[in-house]
Amino acid sequence: MGINVLTLVLIVTVLISMQAMQNGNLKERMMYSPYLVKHNNQGYRIFTHLWIHADVAHLFFNMFSLYALGGMLETELIHEYGRLKGELHILTIYLLGGLFATLIPYIRNHKNPAYRSLGASGAVSAIVFAAILWRPEMELQFIFVPIPFKAYWFGIFYLAYEIWMDKRGNTGIAHDAHIGGAILGIVYVLFINFGKLSNFVQQFIS
Questions:
Q1: What is the DSSP letter of 120?
Q2: Cα 104 vs. chain centroid, distance in angstroms?
Q3: ∠ CA 49-111-109 to the nearest 5 degrees?
Q4: Is 170 left (phi over 0), alpha (psi -120 to 50) or beta?
Q5: pTM
Q6: What residues does each domain of the chain span?
Q7: 109 φ, ψ (degrees, to nearest 5)
Q8: pLDDT in tens, 13-25
Q9: SS3 (DSSP) at 4
């Protein structure tokens, strides 16, 4: 059996990110800049920022999240739609999530030449929230939180936290990109399987 699409994404992201960490010029050329997208016609930055990260910790956190929840979602989508369509769905969620994550920052910063962002956090957020909506009943557990809890609670609290931190501002983190990615992940799942909404609501109120 050949390599799956998320593993390929992970490998490519790690290789490009490690290269960019050692090459400041490459990193600068790939970072997301709404100002340069609009005024210098550098639209490629909408996608290139997905493949680079600020440091190893940033890279590890995103790729671990992608592997953990993305792997589950990929398996579920392949089971539901077959390998070809399932892989296409997971790749589409990832790429559209990364694209959608740039919209709010673009609106806010297209006149700001100093704004820069990088990383796959928006795309990973799309995968994470798509996975949560697909399987809201699954239990998650983190190293720093030894007690397992339902995925839907994590989704609700995480999204509320991101909205709060975005309103607070000056954190150095693109919370608006995380929110945009999450919205895309949710909308995409509802588009391909609207019944997941009633399942989520049922899990929440039960």
A1: S
A2: 14
A3: 45
A4: left
A5: 0.93
A6: 5-205
A7: -125, 10
A8: 999 999 999 999 9
A9: coil
